[in-house]
Amino acid sequence: MKNELYSVLNDFGKENIQIEFQNNINSSIPKIKEILSKTIATIFEKKENIDSDYNNFEKPISILCEAFLHYLLTTTSLPSQRKVMLKELEIDLIIPDIKTLFKDPKKTLIIKFDKDSSTIEYIKKIDNIQKNKENIWIVSSSPLDINYRNYVIYKNKEECQTFFDNNKSIDKNYNNCVIDGKNQINKKKHNNMPTINPNVIPFFSIIVDINKFLKDTKYRGFKFVT
Questions:
Q1: Cα–Cα distance measured from residue 49 to residue 122, given in angstroms and rounded to the nearest whole number
Q2: Domain at 2-216, CATH class
């Protein structure tokens, strides 16, 4: 998967992405969506046995998101520590670092990628490390039944070809979605729409949210490179 991801990134131009994101990090949202869409499409073209069943692809998608987020953090010069062992528990990602976690947990994020069936038990263990529940973020293919901030790619398991978009910025009677990388509007009456958990957020906005968190907590240990 990393090969497909970096092939798409090369097509977009890594240097161009870095310049764009560091000049305007908000521009990362549509670009991340486009890059992921093309990467997933490329992977499926090579996987004949998948037969367009995105449900069989949930865990690998989370792994893809992990690799992509590592790249994004490097590209945007945002601080992070990866694969940190703490109390016999491997932490996927800490923002900004383990030193800050010990000093002031409120200024630290722990990000977990849903890669196997142990995610729920893993989260319970993280609770013993990071007491601030709002500072535990979970990345998964589709929404999990958890009461934590949950970054996802797909709206739900039944619509795993439909990218999840935050619909707060559009008319309440419409559900904006991206299907197969093409912008489409799926019009539905508001009373027929499922209730969206406010903790469920599109993965495409995660790097913007990390940047905002660091600014809000007044982290001074980094700066953008221009």
A1: 31
A2: alpha beta
